[in-house]
Write a structure and sequence with these properties.
By secondary structure, this protein is α/β, with parallel strands linked by helices. Helix content is about 45%, strand content about 15%. It is built from eleven helices and eight strands.
Length: about 250
């Protein structure tokens, strides 16, 4: 049975003082939560510092990676560096990277391969805009995003990935896909992986992201193909994030 996974994406928020308070509070609120896997992805400057103060049982992740191994790429961070900082997970393909920084499906797929080559777990984000959903193009868009990953990553390596479905129209907007809408897309993703790679699809964790809160998490996570969540704003509130983790249990 697939274990639930909850990942907090802190985005570009926080200071040392804020994060210290958040981690202290998380340690209190997450007591007794043991069946779900939990990870947090702080901004780059705080990775090593957060690693030193993370409560037991919480994994460390990063929010992005450079597609290159090393070299003259000012401002970028290599997969080997993230590995050196004891990261376990790395988010790639978040809609903010796609939309604000013009990252293509191919680039995201190459980043995925780079992470796998450095023994890191990619959390590969896929999702459609509101325009695409209203044009009934949701599965077409997501299919193309997945196909790019398939073209770069072999079956054995794909099994080590996590896929996160984040409808762009639901990220930070307060709008959430209904459990039925989310399950439909997750079932499509698992089916597409199954058709490409066979039985590994049954073991891969598929996450939902997009305005997940404590009051809707349990219903979302009860869907048969939703294995947890990639949590944005709610992950900055220890009590709310802990409640989402308990919902995953």
């Amino acid at each position: 049975m697939r274990r639930k996974l909850i990942v907090g994406n802190w985005k570009m928020h926080g200071s040392k003082a804020d994060i210290a308070e958040l981690l202290t509070s998380l340690q209190q609120h997450l007591q007794g939560v043991s069946r779900a896997e939990i990870a947090v992805c702080p901004p780059y400057p705080y990775l090593l510092w957060v690693q030193d103060y993370l409560p037991d049982g919480i994994g460390l992740g990063a929010q992005n990676v450079c597609v290159e191994t090393q070299g003259a790429f000012t401002g970028e961070v290599a997969a080997s560096m993230l590995r050196d900082c004891d990261c376990r997970y790395v988010i790639v393909g978040h809609s903010e990277r796609r939309q604000l920084y013009g990252e293509s499906d191919e680039l995201i797929a190459r980043k995925t391969r780079q992470l796998l080559e450095h023994d890191l777990i990619p959390i590969v984000c896929v999702g459609e805009t509101l325009t695409a959903r209203e044009a009934n193009q949701t599965l077409v868009v997501i299919g193309a995003q997945l196909d790019a990953v398939f073209a770069q990553v072999g079956t054995d390596q794909l099994a080590r990935c996590v896929i996160a479905y984040e409808p762009v129209w639901a990220i930070g907007t307060g709008r959430t896909a209904t459990p039925e809408q989310a399950q439909e897309v997750h079932a499509y993703i698992r089916g597409k992986i199954r058709s490409h790679c066979g039985s590994i699809a049954e073991d891969m964790q598929l996450l939902y992201g997009g305005s997940v809160k404590a009051n809707n998490a349990a219903t979302l996570f009860s869907q048969s193909d939703i294995d947890g969540g990639l949590i944005g704003g709610a992950s900055l509130n220890a009590e709310e994030f802990a409640a989402i983790c308990r919902a995953a249990e």
